[in-house]
Amino acid sequence: MSAREDAAVVIVGAGPAGMMLSAELALAGVDAVVLERRPDHVLADSRAGGIHARTIELLDQRGVADRFLAEGRTVQAAMFGATTLDMSDFPTRHPYSLGIWQKHIERILAGWIAELGVKVSHGHQVAGFDLDDDGVTVRIAHGGSLRARYLVGCDGGRSVVRKGAGIEFPGWDATRSNLIAEVQLTEQPPSGMRQDARGVHALHPMEDGVTYRVVVTESDLEASGEATLADLRRSLVSVYGTDFGVHTPTWLSRFTDATRQAATYRSGRVLIAGDAAHVHYPAGGQGVGLGLQDAANLGWKLAQVVKGTSPDRLLDTYHAERHPVAARALRYTMAQGALQRSDDRMAALSDVVGQLAVMDEPRRLLAGLVSGLDIRYDLGEGHPLLGRRMPDLDLDTGGGKLRMFELLRSARPVLLHLGAASAPDVAGWVERVQVVEAAYHGRWELPVLGTVDAPTAVLVRPDGYVAWVGEGDDAGLPEALITWFGPGDADGRPGGAIRSEPRRGPTHH
Question: What is the value of pTM for the model shown?
């Protein structure tokens, strides 16, 4: 390691993904600095409008879901086409979506990471970075630099970090553009959403009773350029025959249905997450949740590599697990966006899709996809729980009732022993893995799949996904412990620190 190190990890971008990653690292005791180009965390505009069930569960695992639930509104908002996918019968404590604006999500996250002692440096634009054998030197636009072992770009679709690392960003070019704004009106607009061959259009009152949130699809694709009030007026007139006297915008922006995904989420000591790794049309409300889940998957792995308990190759599993999840979500957003167009042919397709989507099996499949509750990381063959999210069971322990998610508050792995003849042997990992003896007498039920056989023990990763399932013996447990939590020690002490040697990429960016 270089003699100088300002932080173990530098995170570029203090949006939802960047803040979530910083929280995960802080919980693991890893020093990180977050660089944000904005002057503070306050957003004048509302931006994205919600999160789905698996993301709510993720926040629940860390003990902060109630903060978000207190300020949002729970709704059945998983959609396919114009059909609402009722998931109220799903086996989760959160069988719904949460309507909450991104500005509130960011404010709550900012409060949480402040409690955790995370350092956020606002007003810092990253100009580039240089790599060497020991780490990364991050150059700041107004002068100065920071030194770290790893750099993570959570800096949005135009990511400086992704571009600097030379990571390709393939995908599909835009076919349409939308204007989105928060404005005041002098005329009362119609209620509800309007669909036509272009796409969707809507005007909704905001919480203050004065401001309206406006979304309108433009008649011609405008893939670049700053949106203006004149553009908004023209588009409103073309759709509604009036601009409703629109004035005093607090936010005005343009977005498209361009859909892209990074070819790799990692290049040596440089990683990317959130919108830096994938961009898409906002139909379906996937953006914030994908970024938060990226961060939860990466955080504990990066912490273990930084601390030397796991080899650097553990970071390769971040791309291997999260890239397919985002790829599938992006296909959904493209399909959802296409179904928003409403000419005669698309209306016919939407009608057929709607008839299918209310049937139980298609509804469960689609709701599982939209909510993220059906995610399965490919950890090989085995019990249906392997690679899936651990249910939040009500456990009977020696100390009384305990929710499974409560065991994940500290972002440490858990080995849950459920009454086999003898407890699984984790002697070499006693300081890394929490071992909990408990009983559970209910059904083991998974979203989409339904009831599965009860295991005798389960190894749960810090992100809440099952890394190993015991079915009466310890077969495969030592290999799972080594894979995910580093080599153990035969004497019952954690193994020695591992010298990380990242895969080499270009050395100058």
Answer: 0.93
